[in-house]
Each structure stands twice: as C-alpha cells, then as structure tokens.
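Hey, I'm writing a tutorial for new members on how sequence and structure tokens pair up, and I'd like a real worked example in the thread rather than a made-up one. If someone can provide the structure for the chain below, I'll link this post from the tutorial.
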Amino acid sequence: MNKKTILQSLGPGLLFAGAAIGVSHLVQSTRAGAEFGFGLLWALLLVNLFKYPFFQFGPRYAAATGETLLDGYQKLGKGVLVAYFILNFATMFTIQAAVTVVTAGLASQLFGITNDLVLWSSILMLISLIILLLGKYKLLDNLMKYIIAILTTSTIVAVSVALFSTKDAFDVTQILPSGTVEITFLIAFLGWMPAPLDVSIWHSIWSIEKNKNSFQKLNPKDAIFDFNIGYISTLFLGICFVLLGALVMYKSGENFSNKGGVFASQLIKLYTKNLGDFSYIFIAIAAFTTMFSTTITTLDASPRAMAKTTNLLFAKQTKLNYWFWIIFLFVGTFIILKFFLANMGLLVKIATILSFITAPFYAILNYILITGTNTPKEHQPKLFLKTLSIIGILFLVGFSIWYIFIIF
C-alpha cells in the first residue's frame, strides 16, 4: 500500500477513535489512575484485547460484503433489529448528553464567556450540526484527521511533562477492586473502554459512507489497516490518561464531582497546580479536543444507525430519515441537560454499565455474522482471531454475570 493509498484509506478508523476517545478516556481513565494509580492497567489492556475482534468485525464485514452490520442483523431475524432499536433508543440520549456536557464544561473553562453548561452544550451541538449539514460525511472524515493529530500531540506533551515532574517512585502493583462501589466503577470503566461495542455498527456505516465518497472501494485488508490505526490510537491514549491520573491525581485527596462542569474545572486546575501554569494550554486543548471529537461523531453516528434501522424495519428509504433522527437527538439531549443536569453522574453510570452488560449481545452477533455464510470465506477471520473472539465472549459474559451477582 503506497503513501497515497494509506491516506485515502484512513477515515472510518479515525472516526472510530474520535467516538471512542471521550468519557471513557478523559473521565473514566483519568479517574482510574486517580483512584487506583497504575493498578487498573490490567483491566484496560484486557478489555481492549478482548473487545478488539468484535470492533474489527464491523469494517471487515462492511468491506467484504458491501453492507453494514445492521443489514447483517436483519438477515439474522427482524427481532434482532428490533432489540437493537430498543437498546440504542434507550441509551443514545444519555450518551450524547454525557459527552456533550463534559465538552461544555471544558469549553467554559477554556473560552470563558459563560458558565451555563446548557447554553454551551447547545452551542457545541449546533456547531456540530452545521458541520454535518454543510460538509456531511466528507468534511467529518477530513476534520477528524486534524482533531486526532492535535489530541495525540497535546496528550503526549502533557504525559511527558507529568513523567518528568513526578518525584515519586512508580508503584505498578495491579489491583482487583472489591466491594460494590469499586466493582461498579470497574464495570463502568470496562463498559466504555475503549467504547461501547455497538460502535462497531457505527464503524460499518462509516465504512459504507467512505466507499460512497471515494473513487476507490476499500478492500478488507485496507479497511482493517485503517481500523487498526484508530484502535491503537484509542489504546495508546487510554494508557496516557491513566498515567496522567496516576501521576498527577493519585493520593491527591481530591474528591471528584459527578457534574461535568465542576469535574472539568477540577481536572484542569489540578493538572495546572501539579504540572505548572504553562501546562494549562496543553491540558485544556487535549481535554477539549478529546470531548469535542466524541460530541460530533456521536451526533452523527446514532442518527445514522437509527435511520438505517428504521429503513430496514419498514422497508422504506428516505434521506430525511437521518435528519429527523439528528434533530430528535438534538432536542432530546437538550431536554435531558435542561431538566436532569444534576443527575448526569447517575445517568452516565447507568449508560456505561448498560453498555457493558449488553456487550455480549453485540459480540455474539458480530461473531455469527463474520463467520457465517454472509461473509465470503476468504474474508473470514483466521483461527487465532476466532479463538480470541470465543475467549472475548466468555470474558464479557463472565464479567457481566459477576457484576449482576455482586449487585443482587
């Protein structure tokens, strides 16, 4: 693959990274480092390993068959699509509200002007809406390359400063959380790390959109290469945010708020206090680009998925379907932020835990599709990836059962 082909193939994988690198990294990974030091690195590495096949099957299936995972789900039975519709509808507003309010909190810290998070959230969603309206997929695809580059650079600088500034010896002892509170945090951490598994559906949709906007159809090999770039980026930055939390916040005595704006203020101020005032701009840019990339990609992806699902369920194609869902998501998110902002911490926890508990559902479906008759034999995964998939399904099911047993 030459340099030009590499640049052309990049796109859906970076959109995946943009969607994944958000609350799971900035909030959950930072908190993991702040509360457990380096102790939960095992969990981050394991969940990224065991979720890898099921995320990869999204672009692999799209490139091999020319259709989205949702088309494949329909072939498995209408009930599967209905189940997805219900699950996505139940979580899409909370997820959008969660990522947007954290972005709004960072914007208020970075730009000032107003501390009204509902107003900031509306502004950010409106900007995202305009970008999607004017540029559609192509602009989002191109924009994400720059956002991920800025995010990666600023995060590396922040981590480097933290590493050189610390005077404490590193304690890399790994920890298995105990007690309901710690286990609930672990499940929430795993639920959105690196992302909920239904993002694999978004990825397959973006892959098809990429083909529509490209002069050259991507083959499965190029699609997997693009995915790997995005996935490795999410893993690397997840480790970076755990390191930042451990190096800067661990044993600091700071109690972090569940409110997006307060948390954003605490985050930036604590980094600045420990790393120096000069680090403010790097931390602020890294944090804001992390969350803005997630805000815009989730605002695009959930409506695309819902539009595709309703088109398949009712056998009716309409371009306005996407815009109906994006406006519906905009309004629903605004209502949640307007009237339930004080309970956002609880809503985020519910959404992340639900994402983890439903992960086996998506993992099993994706595995059935990629190894079934719908996927050409030459594009099906090899023995190693199939084995890893089986182990991954057992891991996800086992953790879900363990969590339910602990809670009840």
